[in-house]
Design a protein that fits this description.
alpha/beta, 3 domains, five-stranded antiparallel sheet, 9 helices, 15 strands, globular, binds ligand FHN
C-alpha cells in the first residue's frame, strides 16, 4: 500500500517524465528544419571522396548463420525469437580484418564500409548502449575496431554503415516490417538519444571517413531528427562525410526533405549528374548479406557497372557478404581481384576523373580529366562507331590507353567517327584516349 508521500512522489515522477517527452517534442518541432549555416561537409572533402570512385560495402552479422537477408529475414524466413538469439552462436573465428581489407585493395577499392548496426539492431562493436553486441557473442572481438585498424594500416578509408531504424530496440516504435501488430508506442526522443550515444562511440573511437546511413523511410524517423543528428555528428567531426539517407525523401535526388551530402541510388547505376555527388550501392551477388550459392555477377557485369558509374560522374559502393565463419567467399575475392587487374591497367581512366561528356550507353561510356576524354568501348558493335560532335573542340590525337594509335575522322558538322581494330585490347572494356585542344572538363554534357 503506497503512503501518501510515495503516491505523491510517483505522481511527480510521472509528471516529470511526461514533461520531458513534451519538451523534447517541442525541441524537435521548433528546431530549425534546416542545418545551421556552414555546417555542411566541405566541397573539398566531397571532391576527394568522389575521386576515389570505388569502395567496398560489407553486410555482415549473426544472420550469416542462416544465409538469409540481414534485417529483412527477421520475422519472415527466420522467426523473430530465433533471429534475435543467433548472436549467442555467432563465432566468425576465421574473421581476418587484414584479409578483408586486402581483398578490397586488390580490387582497386579506395574505401570500405561495414554494417556496424543494421535494422536488426545488432552492434558489431562493444557499445555501452546495449548488450546486443559483439562482445556478448562467443566471438567477443570488436569487428568494427579491427576493420578500422586494418584500413588504417593498409592506407584505405574506413567507413561505417548505420541504420536509423532498429526493429530490435524497444524504444523504436516499429518492431517488424512484416507484421504491424508487433509494433509498440516506443519512445523516439529516447531512441534518438541512444543512436547519438552509439554514433559518438563510433565517431570518437574509430574516426570513420564516411557514415552511410540507412533506414530513413519509416514513419517514426523525421527530418527534424535528421537535422539534429547531422549537426550532432558535425560537432564531433566536421569532416566526416554523411550520405543522404540520414534525411527523408528520395535516395536519388535532393529535395527539401534531404539531409546529407550525397545521393545514393541502389542496385542500379545512377543517372549522369554533374551537379550532385552520388554513389550507387550494388551487390556482387543478389543478397546483401551472405547467401549460399547466391548468383554472382560476371566480370563483364562488374566492370561495366563500375565504368558506367564513373561515366555518370558517380562512385560505386560494391557489396560483398562474408560467410558465417568470417571469410569472404573465394569466388567473390577472385572476382574482385579480376576487377583490380583491370584497374591496374586502366585505373587512370576511372580514379580522379569526371563523368561525361557523353551519357553512358550500351556501347560506350566516357570519363574525362584535363584535356583528355577517356572513351570506354564495351564491345565492337560496329567497326566505326560514331560519337556526337564536340562543338569547337579539336581532337589532336587518339590512342588506346597504354596502347597503339586509333584512327578517327572529325569534321565540323558531322559526328566523330572512330575506326576500331578488329580485335579490341580488352574483352570487357577497352579505353581510348582522346587528346583535345581544350579542357575536356568544361564541355557541357552531350546526349
Ligand atoms: O534495407 C536495406 C538493405 O538491407 C541494404 O542494407 C541496402 C543497402 O543499401 N539498404 C536498405 C534497402 O534500401
Amino acid at each position: 500500500m503506497l503512503t501518501a508521500r510515495q503516491h505523491g512522489n510517483n505522481k511527480r515522477t510521472l509528471a516529470m517524465a511526461g514533461l520531458a517527452v513534451v519538451l523534447s517534442m517541442i525541441f524537435y518541432s521548433v528546431q530549425a528544419q534546416q542545418l545551421a549555416p556552414g555546417i555542411k561537409t566541405s566541397k573539398a572533402v566531397i571532391d576527394g571522396f568522389m575521386d576515389k570512385r570505388f569502395g567496398m560495402f560489407i553486410h555482415f552479422g549473426p544472420v550469416s548463420l542462416r544465409g538469409t537477408e540481414i534485417g529483412w529475414s527477421r520475422g519472415s524466413e527466420v522467426a523473430t525469437e530465433e533471429y534475435d538469439n543467433l548472436y549467442k552462436e555467432f563465432n566468425p573465428v576465421l574473421f581476418n580484418a587484414d584479409a578483408w581489407v586486402k581483398a578490397a585493395k586488390d580490387a582497386g577499392m579506395k574505401y570500405v564500409t561495414i554494417t556496424a548496426k543494421h535494422h536488426d539492431g545488432f552492434c558489431e562493436w562493444p557499445t555501452a548502449a546495449s548488450d546486443y553486441n559483439i562482445m556478448h557473442t562467443p566471438f567477443k572481438k570488436d569487428i568494427v575496431g579491427e576493420l578500422a585498424a586494418a584500413c588504417k594500416k593498409q592506407g584505405i578509408a574506413f567507413c561505417i554503415y548505420f541504420t536509423v531504424l532498429d526493429w530490435h530496440d524497444a524504444d523504436y516504435p516499429v518492431h517488424s516490417p512484416h507484421d504491424s501488430t508487433k509494433n509498440v508506442p516506443g519512445n523516439m526522443p529516447r531512441f534518438v538519444g541512444t543512436i547519438k550515444k552509439e554514433l559518438k562511440e563510433l565517431i570518437t573511437q574509430y574516426k570513420p571517413y564516411m557514415l552511410w546511413f540507412d533506414g530513413n523511410w519509416e514513419k517514426p524517423w523525421t527530418k527534424e531528427y535528421a537535422v539534429d543528428v547531422y549537426q550532432y555528428i558535425k560537432s564531433l567531426d566536421k569532416n566526416v562525410i554523411i550520405n543522404n539517407r540520414l534525411g527523408k525523401g528520395e535516395h536519388i535526388a535532393f529535395s527539401s526533405e534531404s539531409v546529407g551530402d550525397y545521393l545514393t541510388p541502389e542496385q542500379k547505376v545512377g543517372a549522369l549528374n554533374m551537379d550532385d555527388p552520388w554513389e550507387s550501392c550494388i551487390t556482387i551477388c543478389n543478397q546483401w548479406a551472405w547467401k549460399p550459392n547466391d548468383e554472382m555477377k560476371s566480370l563483364k557485369q562488374c566492370l561495366q557497372t563500375l565504368v558506367k558509374t564513373a561515366g555518370g560522374n558517380g562512385n560505386l559502393l560494391f557489396n560483398v557478404g562474408p560467410m558465417m565463419d568470417g571469410r569472404m567467399e573465394a569466388r567473390q575475392v577472385n572476382r574482385l581481384k579480376e576487377m583490380g587487374g583491370w584497374l591496374k591497367k586502366y585505373g587512370a581512366s576511372i580514379y580522379g576523373t569526371k563523368g561525361g561528356p557523353y551519357y553512358p550507353n550500351e556501347t560506350y561510356a566516357a570519363t574525362r580529366k584535363g584535356n583528355i576524354i577517356y572513351l570506354h568501348i564495351f564491345e565492337r558493335k560496329a567497326a566505326t562507331p560514331e560519337l556526337p560532335l564536340l562543338p569547337g573542340i579539336k581532337i589532336i590525337k587518339a590512342h588506346f590507353l597504354n596502347g597503339p594509335a586509333v584512327t578517327f575522322k572529325q569534321e565540323t558538322a558531322s559526328p566523330i567517327i572512330i575506326d576500331l581494330p578488329k580485335e579490341l585490347p580488352d574483352a570487357v572494356s577497352s579505353v581510348i584516349v582522346l587528346e583535345l585542344d581544350k579542357n575536356a572538363e568544361q564541355i557541357p554534357v552531350i546526349k
